Structure formats: structure tokens, C-alpha cells
Write the C-alpha cells for this entry.
Amino acid sequence: MFNRKLLRDFEACKASPEAFQRARLSDILTRNRGAGYLRHYGVEGDLSPSDLRRALPVVTYDALWPWIEPLVETGADGPRGGVTTEPVSMFLKTSGTTGRPKLLPVTPGLEAETDRARRIWIERMIADDERNAVGCHMAVISPMHEDLTPGGLPMGSNTGRIFMRQPELIRAFAPVPYPLFGLRDFDLRYFLMLRLAAGRHDVGTLTTANPSTILMLCRRLAEDIDAIADDIEAGVLCSGARAEALQAATFAPTLDRAAAMAEMKKWLRPDKKRAAFVRAAAVGGPEGLLHRLWPQLTTVNCWLGGHAPLYLGRLAPFLSTPEGSIPMRDPGFSASEGFFAIPLRAGTPEGVLHCMGPFMEFIPEGEGDDRTLLAHELEVGARYRIVVTTSGGLWRYDMQDVVEVTGRLGATPTVRFLYKSGGTLSVTGEKITEGHAVAAAASVADQHDVEAMCATFEFADPPRYVLAFEPGAAAPSPEALAASWDAAMRGVNVEYAEKRDSGRLGPPLARPTARGAFGAWRQAKVNQGAPDGQVKLPPLVRSFEDLTAALLTPEPPR
């Protein structure tokens, strides 16, 4: 009943994406009339899509930063004005493609854009299987307000913002209380997430953006399940060295430590019956562990596109049940900047473009930004870079994300995210993209026991690709792994195969990292300010020097 009008509009939008996108552009311009950025380019009123193209350039974050920075630094727009005239409630902090985190304004208009998509996504999830509405909902997030800007406005993560916009009744029964996500000791944070969730019998859904996070939690659960059961039986958060670490641990500065601890302990009590159930669930090892621990778990929600295939195969044993596998559902092609495509069914990363959300333009892959297309003009099978104009003050903002059009629902395209457009390596014209690297890495992971891997090139004689891989329990031969990657890359990139056959590229070299190297890299990114749930393993690294600095010990000169 709550979503009835929204769903009617959604059906109409699928039939008329052009009309809805024009209406969205008009609404965004109306909400932000008089914004300093628009005045700078002489924009004073409503614009058609073609007028917008002529009036405003396609930009990256660096071009918008001078208009955002005064609000960050002082809490007020500078003399030229800002990117939006709507009130900014907070800034979303996201890692970006460069070292400096991006700070993105949150406005009422932006929240309305993203809320519409989330409500449709949830409605479709429940329509697919009504059991998805049952039980408590476990989300792995980062705090909404992690800190304050110099100007006094809160800044934090998009996942935390989404979590805190849920009805209070839903949040009150979450298996992991919100303050825990502000704990700065990440190792302890993950243990306590699992300890509190394992104490509940009614976990129905598990949601986080990154599949690598779910894989890590599953492995930690298998490793720590005896300690978790002991703590459930004793009715404590944790014991021994972990209890000592918790005494010394700090929380995000926006959280009161005493209140956070009280919230985390609120429902604790000794529970011998649940502890025995948890110990019984551990019997049988990783295979089917989630189903044995939480029989009501009906869906696991995380990215299924982009780099996700590297992890999905390794997640499969944990998700097995006697009836098959727990379904996985992509949370949508979205980012801190907005929500762009809504998956309508489980098991696929493709979704229908959110034409009731931001205004979207598309640049054909490989072309410059002097020509953009609208949603209704896209061709099935073609690839495009997406440019967005949002109610959060992003004007013709180049997301640098490449999507592929997979089909249509009514007149509206369905798309799947492929990779970042800047993520391409080419030393002899082979043009290896992140998509190629992910496909090759997934093939290697099917054949060898590796935890993670990435690639770059080295200017040897002849030039060659270097693979950094973190070995699993059964450490693979670097030579065999390099041969597997070479064969896989030949299969997905004909230019690479040609360059290898002609001798212009030498055979790739594989080098093992220390165990835990990729985890340490990830942790370093989080320590630099990147939201925990958004840090993605880079399938490609720009240079051999960068790869060595991040993951490898330099080899001695020969």
C-alpha cells in the first residue's frame, strides 16, 4: 500500500523513459535554481537535455571541488555560491579513483532520488520471495557520521546513511546494533558482528556491498565459531584477549563510548541452548554453514558484477543448502553519487535504468564527451560511460563507470556495470581492461588456490605483465599460475593473444605476496579514510612501481 503510487509511476517510467528523464532534469534544475555553479555558466532557468549539453561541460570531481570546498571548510558556501541551493545535511565520504577521498553533498532531493530506487528494489525482492520479509535483517555498514568537516558538518558513509533512514522499528531489531560499526578496531568489529548475529536464530537476510566482505565474514565465522559459542553461552560480548582489546578500543568520534557499549550489551544474556545450536552448526565445516546457523536466511545481497566473480565461486560452499543455494541479489548499480539501475530479480547484476532518479547521459565507449546519448537512445549490446546530473549538486558528472546494455524492459534499457573507464593497461596496444583482468583472475581462481590477485606491466625486454597473487593454503606454482593467466587472457582479449604470439609481449611473470598482503593493503586504504565497505581490490595497478610499493618486496638487482 505504501508503494502503490511509486510502483504505478515505475511502470509508466519503463514505457516512457524519455519523458521521465526530461521531468527529472527539470525538477533538479528547479530545486537548485540560483546555485553558484549554475550562475557561473549562465544557467538561470529550465533547460532541455540539448540545452544542458551546450551550457555545462562534462566534469570530474576535481572540477566541482572548488564549489564544494568552502562548505566543507567553513560550513557555508563561498562568495560564488555552491553546487546546490538545497540544505546540505552531511557529506558522503567515498574513496574515489585518486588518493584524496571525495566528499559528496547530501540534500533532500538526493535522498528522495535514492529512496525511490531502494523502495522498488525491496518491493521486488519481497515479490520474488515473501520469506525475504521475515526475520531480522543483518547489514554490514560503515557509520553514517564518522567525523565532522572543518566547517562542522557531519561526514560519513552512504551505507550508514541508508541504514539510518530505515524505520526505527526495523533498526531496533537489527542483529548488529548500529554503534558497533563505529568501533575502530576492525578485527574486533568483525568478530563482534558475528558473535551478536550468531546469537540470533532469526537472521533472514544478509546485505553488504562488497562480496569480499561476505567471504571474509564467512571464513571468520568458520574459524571463530567455537569462541563465538562460548561467549553466547556465557552471555558476554567477548572474552580473554578480545575483552582486553575491547577495553582499549576507540569508537568514531561522533559516538559516545559508554552509550555505544550499553547498546551493544543491551540484549545479552547467557544462552546455553543457542550456544549448543551454534556448536552443532559448526559440525560439517564451511559447506552449508550459513544455512545451518540461520535456517531462515533466504537471501544474501551483494555486488554480482564488476570484480565480484573473483569471490562468488569461493562463497558458494558457505551458501549451499539441501535444496540448492541461498539466492544472491545484487543491491543495484549505485554509488555514493546516486542510484542508477535497479535489479529486479536475483542472480544477476543487470538492472533497469532508474529513470525516476538522476538525469543520465551516456558516452559511447571509446568516444569523447562532445556527444552524449539519453537512455531511450541506447543500443542493446553496446557499452557506454555514464554521466549523471543529480539533486546532490553533481552537474554532468563523469562517473567513469562503463556499463553494457543487456536488453530492455518496455522502452527502458537494462544495464550491467563492467568496470571503471580509466582502468586500462596497454603497453603494445593490447588494451587490457578491468573486465579482462577480472575474467582472467576468475579463471585462475578456478584452477589454483589463490586468495587475491592483480596485474600490471613491466618494461622488461620484451615488456611483460606481472601478476601479484596471495597464495591460499595450497600455494600454487607461480609458473603454473602465470601460464593459466596467460591462457585466460588470450581467451578474453584477442589483441593480447596477437601481441603474445608476435613476441611483442613476453610471457607473464607471477609473484606471490606475503600472506595477508591484500588485507593489509585494504586496511591501509580504510585508515586513509576510505569507507570500509567500499574498498575494492584493484584488478589492475597502473605501474610496476605502484604494485611493488603496495604488495611486493622489490627483487634484488640481477
About this structure: Residues 554-558 have pLDDT under 50 and may be disordered. The chain is about 40% helix and 20% strand. Residues 471 and 533 are 23 Å apart (CA to CA).
